[in-house]
Specification:
With 233 residues, the chain is an alpha+beta fold. It starts with a helix and ends with a strand. The model is unreliable at 2-19 (pLDDT under 50). The strands form 2 sheets. A 7-stranded antiparallel beta sheet has the order 3-4-9-5-6-7-8, with no helix packed on it. Helix 3 (37-44) packs across helix 4. Strand 5 (178-183) and strand 6 (190-197) form a beta hairpin. It is built from 8 helices and 9 strands.
Length: 233
């Protein structure tokens, strides 16, 4: 390497040392958007401690995380990674932000509203939705055939993902709606249609081959199903 090349290389390296790091750009953009580390964690689908590690430059970004984080921060991935250009160069600012929703188990669903604050966001897989939902919203993967129909009407087949809103209002507001419920003594929640007929309440399947379940005792309505997502293979 010639002396000129060596000098140019040294100057380049030294200049890079004084430029912003990836972590500093993440922090800068986050603060511009008035977002907390928890906000970033929930939208990307990681723990808040992972965001701290990014902003401290202790952990690098994978390609997948870079794209997700760039979307959440509404910035150009090249700017975020290399400091090239301006944050909003060559990007389209979304008018609606997709919200990642944690996919939880049917065992967790009945007590989710009490336990979600203590849960680690990094422990879950996430699915995106553009619905306006509370921070307590969750998703479930449907099991069984009780909500499957073959008559052209609403059908929620096994394997579909349902997006659930725990803040559903009053019980009368969800009469006739699809809900997630858990009866006392049951280990898991279930998905059914809530039917209120005078003093009687039922959890009704959509599949006529299954029988309605009468609510006779304590029953927790964990939330109202707001969206059904079905992937076609």
């Amino acid at each position: 390497m010639s002396i000129k090349c060596k000098i140019t290389y040294v100057l380049y390296v030294n200049l890079r040392l004084f430029m912003e790091t990836v972590g500093e750009r993440i922090k800068q953009r986050r603060r511009q958007l008035k977002m907390t580390q928890k906000d970033i964690a929930e939208r990307v689908g990681i723990s808040a401690s992972a965001v701290t590690q990014w902003e401290s430059d202790n952990t690098g970004l994978s390609a997948e995380s870079l794209l997700k984080l760039s979307s959440v921060l509404s910035c150009n991935p090249k700017w975020l990674m290399f400091g090239v250009g301006l944050p909003e160069d060559d990007i389209e600012i979304k008018t609606s932000i997709y919200k990642p929703i944690p996919i939880i188990s049917w065992v967790q669903a009945g007590e989710w509203t009490e336990t979600y604050c203590e849960s680690d966001p990094g422990n879950y897989k996430y699915i995106d939705t553009n619905l306006k939902l509370s921070d307590k919203a969750f998703a479930l993967i449907v099991k069984g055939q009780s909500m499957t129909t073959y008559n052209g009407e609403l059908s929620i087949p096994e394997g579909a993902v349902v997006i659930v809103e725990p803040d559903y209002g009053y019980l009368d507001d969800i009469n006739g709606k699809i809900v997630i419920a858990q009866q006392k003594g049951s280990d898991e929640a279930t998905i059914k249609k809530l039917i209120i007929d005078g003093p009687n309440k039922y959890l009704a399947p959509l599949n006529p081959q299954f029988n309605p379940i009468q609510i006779n005792g304590d029953c927790v309505i964990a939330g109202k199903v707001k969206q059904v997502i079905i992937n076609l293979d």
